[in-house]
């Protein structure tokens, strides 16, 4: 078993399909990520039911709004008992600080992370938004805002994980989606890394969705990924 088990992105079109997978999983073998699609379908009650069953739940709603609105959303998320919530670092320092303060005031304080640059971006698509240059530079700028606001870490691609670790220290979490076992297509992801390269490159928490949820045998896919996470390999060499 790896120290930080993978986080499975439950991006299903309906609650029943998500529950069908979760029922096959031993609690503790992985963590669960509830994102926008499943949350809109299942609502807070679904999240609370996973928490009640003992799951560590990453509520991946990526709040991005004015500080007051994000603070309120973070309070509500914390009260669901989840393990991690996130916001967009692009919301700026004041928004990040408001999120931090809101979480800290709750009886249960989940980890709070900030999305830097979505893993579906490469330099070309990022430039379309007005952010020029390599994604890593933008990721580090946004990670600095999250660090200064006292967040627990960032969501980034594994390509940037080592630079973030070196700049902000081991304890600042690097949560990395865009994980693809070798031979598996990239889907809409652009900054993609294999499970073992992500581990070697300094990711603290791997987020994996479709390679498991769309596999013919999701449990076998999860076991294969868990095994890959334990293979030692050098860090990623170039994007
Ligand atoms: O930069 C980001 C931030 C969040 N995500 C989320 O992670 C999963 C990835 O799913 P896959 O099927 O493994 O691609 C998905 O829920 C995204 O919303 C991300 O991919 N990139």
TrEMBL record:
One of its GO terms (cellular component) is cytosol. Residues 5-225 form the Orotidine 5'-phosphate decarboxylase domain. The gene is pyrF. The active site is at 60 (for ompdecase activity), 62 (proton donor), 62 (for ompdecase activity), 65 (for ompdecase activity). Substrate binds at residues 11, 33, 60-69, 119, 180, 189, 209-210. It comes from the Bacteria. The keyword Lyase applies. SUPFAM superfamilies: Ribulose-phoshate binding barrel. PROSITE patterns: OMPDECASE. This is Orotidine 5'-phosphate decarboxylase. Pfam families: OMPdecase (PF00215). PANTHER family: OROTIDINE 5'-PHOSPHATE DECARBOXYLASE. It catalyses: orotidine 5'-phosphate + H(+) = UMP + CO2. Keywords: Decarboxylase, Lyase, Pyrimidine biosynthesis. GO terms for biological process: 'de novo' pyrimidine nucleobase biosynthetic process; 'de novo' UMP biosynthetic process. One of its GO terms (molecular function) is orotidine-5'-phosphate decarboxylase activity. Pathway: Pyrimidine metabolism; UMP biosynthesis via de novo pathway; UMP from orotate: step 2/2. Homodimer. It comes from Spiribacter salinus M19-40. Belongs to the OMP decarboxylase family. Type 1 subfamily. Its EC number is 4.1.1.23. Catalyzes the decarboxylation of orotidine 5'-monophosphate (OMP) to uridine 5'-monophosphate (UMP). It is an enzyme of class 4 (lyase).
């Amino acid at each position: 078993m790896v120290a930080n088990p993978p986080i499975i992105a439950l991006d299903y079109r309906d609650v029943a399909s998500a529950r069908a997978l979760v029922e096959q999983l031993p609690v503790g073998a992985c963590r669960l990520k509830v994102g926008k699609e499943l949350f809109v379908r299942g609502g807070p009650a679904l999240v609370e039911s996973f928490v009640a069953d003992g799951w560590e739940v990453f509520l991946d709603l990526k709040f991005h709004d004015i500080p007051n609105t994000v603070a309120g959303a973070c309070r509500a998320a914390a009260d669901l008992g989840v393990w991690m919530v996130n916001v967009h670092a692009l919301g700026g320092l004041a928004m990040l600080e408001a999120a931090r303060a809101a979480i800290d005031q709750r009886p249960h304080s989940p980890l709070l992370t900030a999305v830097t640059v979505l893993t579906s971006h490469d330099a070309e698509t990022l430039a379309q938004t007005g952010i020029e240059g390599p994604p890593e530079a933008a990721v580090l700028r946004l990670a600095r805002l999250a660090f200064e606001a006292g967040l627990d870490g960032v969501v980034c691609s594994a390509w940037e994980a080592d630079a973030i670790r070196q700049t902000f220290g081991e304890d600042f979490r690097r949560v990395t989606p865009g994980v693809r076992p070798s031979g598996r297509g990239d889907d809409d992801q652009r900054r993609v890394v294999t499970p073992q390269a992500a581990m070697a490159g300094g990711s603290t928490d791997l987020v994996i969705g479709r390679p498991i949820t769309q596999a013919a045998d999701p449990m076998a896919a999860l076991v294969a990924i868990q095994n890959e996470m334990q293979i030692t390999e050098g860090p990623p060499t170039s994007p």
